[in-house]
Structures are given as structure tokens and as C-alpha cells.
């Protein structure tokens, strides 16, 4: 017999696997569709023939060397940020929790920019990005911890305060970049163009690893979402588990930020939408969010690339972080107003 709480038994196992299979197929189809999107649309026939060296070498280069790597990066980053959003929302029992809103993304950005200043290579930049995010999480926890433990509302407010501080630090650091400030701002707002050849297997491995891990983590998040006391009664060492999960989330966000800057609101938008579709059971919500995050960011990136001809005179493409923010910010406001109405009604 399942040990999951009654309110989490929302779908049969067969239906859950059907939903995940459907999302997996949709992810693959979205990737194929995004391969055809760019400054000029590519037909399905041209996409098929791009695999043939003798057809059109230039088209093959555009599709396989330019579009495919950034689509793979978008899939991996979207999956990572969406899964971290589910993670924070379960631990804090708050649908507003998300790496960007908690200040984690900007903390990672401070570390990444410092790494670029020092010229220590991609590995060093990634480690400093993780360190910046971990420091933000530790600081937010320290500020928000009261006599009754960490309250989610206090942690969110602390995250907003720390986010303001890290944003100021970022702008101060950008001030010293001089002529490089334009490219730095482009990266900071979300840039998926930094795609070396090895990014395809790395991103697909990240996507696959997150999906497999999510299949075994749902019960743990279900327990944490019940509250610390209930989770402890189920035998969990709550403080230890949360510390480990916070560090894992900091590392994941740090890796994504070091490659493509801060891309916000994916961890808010995707879990919120999927929670309304598949329910609150994290055994399904978490893997669904991994795939949903990949789909969402691939579509946002396709939109930013499709808009390139219209803004060509500006000297660069539309940052993908701007697209996600245009969707996520209104939803964030809606959630705030919904929670406020709920509090008044209560």
C-alpha cells in the first residue's frame, strides 16, 4: 500500500507514465521544431537533408553547429531551473519560491562575473558561480531563521533583500568592464549563444540525469511539503536533507548561470502551470517539470531567435531572459494577489 498522503494520490501509475511519455515526445518534437526556427525558417525537408554533407554545407553548419547546440543548452538549462523551482517550493511550502526570486541566480552571477574578471577559465567560473549561490542561500537562511525555524515568507523577503544587494554588486562590477559592458549585459539577461561543441552531450546528459533523479525524489519532496514536523515523524533528518538539497540547487543554478547568465521565472512558471495540470504529487510533478522546463526555454529561445531580423539594427538578439521575464513577472504578480486574497478571506 502506498505511504503517500491521500491528497497526493491523484493519478494512477499507468496514467502518470502516460503523461510523462507524452511530455517526452512533446520535448523531442519541440526540439525538432526549434531546429527549423532562426533568422530564416527551415523546411522539414531541408532539416532532413541537412544530415547529408552533399546537400548544402552552409545549411548543415547553421542547423548542426549553431542551432542544435543552443537548443540542447536551452533544454538542459530549462530542465535545471524548473526542477530547482519545484525543489524550493516543496521545501518552503510556498508557490512563490524560485531561484531567481530568492536571489540565488544573482548570487551565482556575482561569482561568475568575478571569475571572468580573474580569467580563471570555465571550470573556475563555474565553481565561483556555485560559491556565490551557496553564500546567498546560507545568508538568506541565517537572516530568515527565527525561534520556530525558517519561515517561507521570511526567506522570500530575505531573498528579495539579498537580491537587491547582489544586483548592486553586479552593476558595480559591470562598471569596470568598459567596452565589454554590452556583451556582459547581454549575458546577464540570458544568453544561449555561448555553445561550444561539447555542450550538446553535456546538456543532454544534464537533462537525462535530472529526469532520472526526479523519478526517485518525488516521495522525499512530498514529505518535505507536509512540513518539518510531519517530515521528521516519517524519519527524515529535515535539517540535513534541506541543507543537502539547498547545496544541490545552488550547484545546479551555478552551472547554468556560468554558461548563460541569469534566466528568471522558469522555476515559477513551469511548476505552477504543471501543478494545475498533473496535480501536486511530486512523484509526477517533478519529472514533468524537468521536461516542461526544457520545452518552455526551447520555445522562448526560438522566439528570441525568430525576432532577430526585427531588431537587427540594435546590434544583437533579444535576450532569452527577457522573454521568460515577460511571461513570469505577470504570473508572479498574479500569485501574490491570489495569496493576498486568500489571507484576507481566511
Strand neighbour order, sheet with most strands: 1-2
Largest sheet: 2 strands, antiparallel
How much helicity do the residues have? Answer: over 70%
Give the CA-based shape.
globular
General description of the model:
The protein has one domain: ABC transporter involved in vitamin B12 uptake, BtuC (Orthogonal Bundle). Helices cover 73% and strands 1% of the residues. The chain has a two-stranded antiparallel sheet with strand order 1-2. Helix 3 runs parallel beside helix 8, helix 4 crosses helix 11 and helix 8 runs antiparallel to helix 13. The N terminus is likely disordered.
Helix-strand layout with pairing:
Elements: H1 13-35, H2 44-49, H3 57-92, H4 104-118, H5 121-144, E1 145-146, E2 149-150, H6 152-175, H7 181-188, H8 199-215, H9 218-225, H10 228-233, H11 238-260, H12 266-278, H13 282-306, H14 320-345
Q: Top keywords for this entry?
A:
single chain, 346 residues, mainly alpha, two-stranded antiparallel ribbon, disordered N terminus
Amino acid at each position: 500500500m502506498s505511504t503517500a498522503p491521500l491528497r497526493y494520490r491523484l493519478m494512477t501509475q499507468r496514467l502518470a507514465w502516460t503523461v510523462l511519455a507524452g511530455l517526452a515526445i512533446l520535448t523531442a518534437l519541440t526540439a525538432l521544431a526549434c531546429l527549423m526556427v532562426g533568422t530564416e525558417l527551415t523546411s522539414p525537408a531541408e532539416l532532413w537533408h541537412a544530415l547529408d554533407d552533399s546537400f548544402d554545407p552552409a545549411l548543415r553548419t547553421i542547423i548542426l553547429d549553431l542551432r542544435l547546440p543552443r537548443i540542447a543548452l536551452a533544454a538542459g538549462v530549462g530542465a535545471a531551473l524548473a526542477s530547482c523551482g519545484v525543489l524550493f517550493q516543496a521545501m518552503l511550502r510556498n508557490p512563490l519560491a524560485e531561484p531567481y526570486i530568492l536571489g540565488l541566480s544573482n548570487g551565482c552571477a556575482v561569482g561568475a562575473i568575478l571569475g571572468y574578471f580573474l580569467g580563471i577559465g570555465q571550470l573556475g567560473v563555474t565553481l565561483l558561480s556555485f560559491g556565490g549561490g551557496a553564500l546567498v542561500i546560507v545568508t538568506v537562511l541565517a537572516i530568515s531563521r527565527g525561534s520556530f525555524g525558517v519561515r517561507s515568507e521570511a526567506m522570500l523577503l530575505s531573498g528579495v533583500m539579498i537580491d537587491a544587494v547582489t544586483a548592486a554588486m553586479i552593476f558595480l562590477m559591470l562598471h569596470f568592464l568598459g567596452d565589454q559592458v554590452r556583451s556582459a549585459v547581454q549575458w546577464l539577461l540570458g544568453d544561449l549563444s555561448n555553445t561550444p561543441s561539447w555542450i550538446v552531450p553535456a546538456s543532454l546528459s544534464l537533462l537525462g540525469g535530472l529526469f532520472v533523479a526526479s523519478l526517485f525524489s518525488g516521495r522525499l519532496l512530498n514529505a518535505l511539503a507536509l512540513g518539518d514536523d510531519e517530515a521528521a515523524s516519517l524519519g527524515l533528518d529535515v535539517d540535513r536533507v534541506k541543507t543537502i538539497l539547498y547545496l544541490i540547487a545552488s550547484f545546479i543554478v551555478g552551472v547554468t548561470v556560468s554558461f548563460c547568465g541569469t534566466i528568471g521565472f522558469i522555476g515559477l512558471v513551469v511548476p505552477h502551470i504543471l501543478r494545475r495540470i498533473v496535480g501536486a504529487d511530486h512523484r509526477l510533478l517533478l519529472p514533468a517539470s524537468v521536461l516542461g522546463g526544457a520545452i518552455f526555454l526551447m520555445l522562448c529561445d526560438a522566439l528570441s531567435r525568430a525576432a532577430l531580423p526585427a531588431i537587427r539594427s540594435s546590434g544583437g538578439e533579444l535576450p532569452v531572459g527577457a522573454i521568460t521575464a515577460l511571461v513570469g513577472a505577470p504570473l508572479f504578480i498574479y500569485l501574490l494577489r491570489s495569496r493576498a486574497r486568500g489571507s484576507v478571506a481566511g
